[in-house]
Amino acid sequence: MACKIYGFGVRDFTRTTGSIRPYEESPIEIFGVDCCMFASNFPLHKLFSSYNTIFNAFKEITSSYLLEDRMKLLQNNMEKF
């Protein structure tokens, strides 16, 4: 099973790390870093937020994760699945 983490509160037009956090942390807590993949929904989300806002939120939310786990979320799991 795999979980693609994206969307980040589509109805939230003022995305912040705080508003994105539950959309990112909950799937990782439920499925674990071995089954989750971080993604964006660009260019559609460009209407509501910048890529930097979303990616910087990811970096902040996962700052306590091991580099290996961050790489799983960003790349390795996508290649695996």
Largest sheet: 2 strands, parallel
How many strands appear in the DSSP assignment?
Answer: 2
Tell me the number of helical segments per DSSP (H or I, 4 or more residues long).
3
Shape: globular
- Supply Rg: 12 Å
How far do the termini sit from each other?
Answer: 9 Å
Low-confidence segments, given as residue ranges, are none
The domain count comes to 1
H and E string: EHEHH
Class inferred from helices and paired strands: mainly alpha
Strand order of the largest sheet: 1-2
Percent in strands: 5-15%
Let me know the average pLDDT.
86
Can you give the helix content as a percent range? Answer: 40-55%
Give a short overview.
By secondary structure, the chain is mainly α. The chain has three helices and two strands, in the order βαβαα. It has a two-stranded parallel sheet.
Explained architecture:
With 81 residues, this protein is mainly α. It has one domain. The protein is 49% helix and 7% strand. It is built from 3 helices and 2 strands, in the order βαβαα. The protein has helices at 17-31, 51-61, 67-80, and strands spanning 3-5, 36-38. It has a two-stranded parallel sheet with strand order 1-2. α1 (17-31) crosses α2. The protein starts with a strand and ends with a helix. 16% of the residues are buried. The model has no long low-confidence stretch (mean pLDDT 86).
